[in-house]
Amino acid sequence: MGRNQRIGLLAAAVVIVVIAVVLIGSGGGDKTKTASGPQTVTVVNGKPEGGVKTLTYKKGDTVDLTVKSDTADEIHIHGYDFHKDVEKGGSVHFSFPAKIDGKFVVELEDAGEEIASLQVEP
Predict the structure, then answer these.
(1) Whether the predicted pLDDT of 80 surpasses 50
(2) Domain range for residue 50?
């Protein structure tokens, strides 16, 4: 094998490693979900089904969130200070402009249980 062939193979190997690192890094398996439309959080036995998820919106977008719950409680979106009561087996819907950037807790207020994290990016 000539020198140019070895350099070509080495360059190809480097490209493959870089692509693999980028793909692995972007699929980190966290529970962050970039939201661009309606999102639903389901509460089962007073806990968020699948764990607490981060719902990410861009500032200026419309937050469109439905909470379905098998537990009666008040849903509170901290920071924006929105409150709505949800009945056992019912659902509530929030729709509002994402005007404040930051990270905000969405909580079953009486139970003190975080059910989602709302992140608004500038």
Answers:
(1) yes
(2) 32-121
Predicted pLDDT of residue 28: 42
- pLDDT score of 113 more than 80: yes
Strand partners, 116: 53, 106
Q: Which residue has the tokens 């190997």?
A: 13
Please check the confidence at residue 32 and state whether its pLDDT lies above 50: no
Extract the tokens encoding 72.
């009666």
- CATH number of the CATH domain containing 38: 2.60.40.420
Q: Do β-strands 53-58 and 113-121 pair in parallel, antiparallel, or remain unpaired? A: parallel
Q: Are residues 18 and 49 in the same domain?
A: no
Nearest to 76 by CA among 54, 48, 105: 105
**55: β partners:** 33, 118
